[in-house]
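Weekly puzzle thread! Below is a chain. First person to post its structure in token form gets bragging rights.
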Amino acid sequence: MHHRRFVRARRFGVAIPVIFGLAALGCQSDGGNGLETSGRGHPLLRNTKFVVAAPTITTKKAQAQTHFEAGLRSYFDGNLTAAAGFFETAGEIDPGCAMCFWGVALALAPRPGEPEDAVKASRASAAIERAKKLEPIITASERGYIEATVLLLTPAGGSDATSRQRAYARAMQALASQYPGDLDAVTLAAEAMLATTSAPPPPSKGVSAAPSDAGDALQALRGVLATDPNHPGASRLYNQTLRKTLLTRWQEAMMAGQEAQAKAAAREIEKAISDDAMREDPDLEGAATATVFTLVRFGHWKEILALPAPQNDLHYLVGMWYYSRGLAFTRLAQFLDVPPEQAELEEATARVKPDQTVLGSANARKQLEIAILVLDAEIEHMRAHRENALKQIREAVRLEDSLGNAKPSAFYVPTRQVYGAILLWNDRPREAEQAFREDLERNPENGWSLLGLAQSLQAQKRTQEAAEMKARAQRALAQADVSPPTSVF
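Winning reply:
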């Protein structure tokens, strides 16, 4: 789909693929046949960054080009009905415009995971057949679009919808590789890759349901955005896939105790975000913490200490790295006093801009302040300063509450889970019960808090209630591939 090379970035020791998109633009005429056509590998959309005066598709009519672009922009915006209408109008203006009929077929094609509309499917098939008949007068790149869509809509791609979708995805990847300067081909190829895995099988213990190539698709989209930051399709797909698909899968796996799936989703997220991308959009630092937070969530303290430092200018990411290391040293009891990571975390927090956000809307500095308080509480507990520990974790809970009850939380774990665990460790089960019940009001059927609540009730010798809560916890964590000792590792 794209040309790339690997560079070694000091961000959790992962090789980050860097994609270099080509952006040579211009237009050519096709063999003197009087038709204005696109050149090799040019995007179908004209834009303000690269001024392309001539049509980008084979057409005799300027208005057909205009309506075609309106259709493609509507498609990239997710408005398929409007897209089909614009493409159809473009075809009426110029019946010899093969790409106009290709657009109709694309907009009306069945969507993975949605019930097939027989009328739309019939219209799509008729449109792609009409486009195919016009192939002798169009460019090679246009034929590539049409032939790929033939595989999506006809038995040539396979006997079932899943096979046809995969055949289409492979063909679009080949087209994008052949014409890497065609940002629209790269975007549609990435969309096709994501569509092949948009409906993963039900999760099972220890088996990742995350798409194996979602990270590659996101990398390709980042390459498009590096060339054209305002590309409508790449921008929408990238944000939707990273923030709504991969992050949601990661967060759900974390809550469900599915370590393998959480790690797989974190790897895909990591693959998709380069250090330069985070410098351009610091909000992405929130997503980039998925790897380290997964290790914290599941108690892999030695693995945390083996992670290399992020780049120094990624202050939020650096801060959370120090948080994880401080917590690891505390849990492993490698420091009998305060680990140096506590001061480093505070310094990193001070360097974060007051208005920086992570995960869309969460204030980055406030999230780090929660981390400071949680780490302080853990350190004070290790030092047997019980009241100080409880004071700090209560302040973390108060701060989290003051930020609203966003779902999901930008912090990797609800602070009341930590609060309840510290109370249990200090033989205060009644207060722990209250903390866990409060968390369950905010996060219903949270298996981690149900487990903590069951342990709190058992410690009070309320055996029947404890058994009921334990059963609820087991149901909530039925797909877990780990056995949490309590509400936190």
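Puzzle host: Confirmed. Bonus trivia for everyone else. The mean pLDDT is 85.
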